[in-house]
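Propose amino acids for all 120 sites.
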């Protein structure tokens, strides 16, 4: 069974920083795009950032210049460094990955979600 497990998150004051990490485990042949999404109360889930296996990145306009996504292909992990956090960044953050397994095909996986709260 392949799964994503997230860590990080928590409460931080405006202007502060937080780091999120996500590790994929199980029978994995290859991971294509990995990314982070977020969902604030009463809103739809939205893209935060994605990173291809090549390292090519894509960011939501609202986080450009403040957030940095990175991945370690050898460890099957993806991280999100969040700086200059704003109250509007408050949301549940979800890790996402397109995982190819040796025997059972490709899966679009989601982590369990981790809460990020930006408040004074």
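Proposal:
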């Amino acid at each position: 069974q392949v799964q994503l497990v997230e860590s990080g998150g928590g409460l931080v004051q405006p202007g502060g920083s937080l780091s999120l990490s996500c590790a994929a485990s199980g029978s994995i042949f290859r991971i294509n795009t990995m990314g982070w999404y977020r969902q604030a109360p009463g809103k739809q889930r939205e893209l935060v950032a994605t990173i291809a296996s090549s390292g090519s990145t894509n960011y939501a306009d609202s986080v450009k210049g403040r957030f940095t996504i990175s991945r370690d292909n050898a460890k099957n992990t993806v991280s999100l460094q969040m700086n200059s956090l704003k109250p509007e960044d408050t949301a549940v953050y979800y890790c996402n990955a397109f995982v190819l397994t040796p025997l059972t095909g490709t899966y679009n996986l989601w982590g369990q979600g981790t809460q990020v709260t930006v408040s004074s």
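The CA atoms of residues 99 and 105 lie 8 Å apart. The longest strand covers residues 91-101.
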